[in-house]
Amino acid sequence: MFPDGSWRLAEAGDSVLIRQNLQKAETLGLENESMDPLQERTTGEYDDYILRQWNELHFNIKATEKKIQNEFRNATNAQFSAAEIYHNAEANKSMIDPVRFATITEQYEQSIKELKQAKVNQQSIKKLLDQSKKLASVPPSKMEPKLNSLKSKYNLFMSKYTGAPVEEDVKEVKPKKSKEKPQTPLVKPEKPDKKTVNEKPISKAANNDLPPHARIKTYKSDPFDCNVRTDTVDETTGRRKIELAPALFFTHTDPDLRPFFKDKELITCYAKMSKSDAYVYLTIDFQIASSHSQSNFGSLSNGSLLRLRLLNGEFVSLYNLRADRGRIDPYSGHTIFTGQYALGTEEIKMLQQNQLDKVRIIWSTGYEDYDVYKVDFMIDHLNCLHSR
């Protein structure tokens, strides 16, 4: 067949040309069969393929890191609770059944092991995440060997972490079922107003018959005494400073520790509001009735979060202005941590119009959530401060 579409029957002399064409076609066919499918990709397609592989791996590592961070916080809080129970039991060993004390000791030692393992997991996954972040700056053409190495490390870590072999392809990490009591989340849907939570309240006589820790506390908004401690003007700067007297903000005792504290509280929190010209500050003293508070709570770091949950479900986030490692009160023996938080215009507006529900404190060893009984605290103190 000729290029213009015409043709003729093959002649004897055409055999050499036919043989050459057949050899050329066979050679091309063999070469195509031996090619790697990846070699058929264009450079752009190959780069896109590698980047998708990295993106999937990075997403899985990040999801695992977030899960492990949460486990570390839970292990820290569990260890603190177990330590408090153990130290209080040790101080009252003569009053506690030996079998019960042995159980408390075992739980305390187990909490230490779990916290230690949680720290190891935290450090390992953080190292993998850092390596994955560095890969983002590597050109796709040079990324594949490092990506395969990171994928192997992650699979090895997951096999140790879950206690089961992991498939070669990295898959989305799903949280394991835990036998431990899950931590109560800060946000609870459709929570009723604290003032109207009991439509049929228990009778006063029946309530008084219950032990102190089991009695139902009914909220009553008492008249607020606007007590100003300081009202001065700085002669140098001309700034006026107003400071209110400290007042009880909230108290908290873990239910497991209640038998040791009886009518007392583990944490007693006092707060005060102050104002310097247009700047408003909230100062909080956390008084902890324990000699082991600094090892269990750690410290309040500079910039650590104080999150206030309002009864309408919204949040107000404040940040600590100074670090505090705590101090021992010479009279009570309690450990006192002090945090100072600045309030902006938006925060003040929200807090003046809404009652409080919960407080979340970020300690250096983890976070804890506390119920606020005096739900009108911020409303009363801010109105008092701005009335001056």
How would you describe this protein?
By secondary structure, this protein is an alpha+beta fold. 42% of the residues lie in helices and 19% in strands. The protein has helices at 15-34, 43-91, 98-135, 140-162, 204-209, 258-261, 293-297, 345-353, 377-386; strands spanning 228-233, 240-244, 247-252, 267-276, 279-288, 305-310, 315-319, 327-328, 335-343, 356-363, 366-371. Strand 8 (327-328) and strand 9 form a beta hairpin. Helix 2 (43-91) runs antiparallel to helix 3 (98-135), helix 2 (43-91) runs parallel beside helix 4 and helix 3 (98-135) packs antiparallel against helix 4. The chain is flat, with a radius of gyration of 34 Å. 20% of the residues are buried.
Task: Sum this structure up briefly.
The chain is an alpha+beta fold. The chain has 9 helices and 11 strands. It is 42% helix and 19% strand.
Portion in beta strands: 15-25%
Helix content: 40-55%
Based on Cα principal axes, name the global outline. Answer: flat
Q: What is the helix/strand order? A: HHHHHEEEHEEHEEEEHEEH
Structural class: alpha+beta
**Number of helical segments with 4 or more residues:** 9
The count of domains is 2
Q: How far apart are the first and last residues' alpha carbons, in Å?
A: 105 Å
- Report the biggest beta sheet as strand number plus sense, adding barrel if it closes: 7 strands, antiparallel
* Average pLDDT taken over every residue: 76
Radius of gyration over C-alpha positions, nearest whole angstrom: 34 Å
The low-confidence parts are 24-35, 166-204
Using DSSP, what is the number of strands? Answer: 11
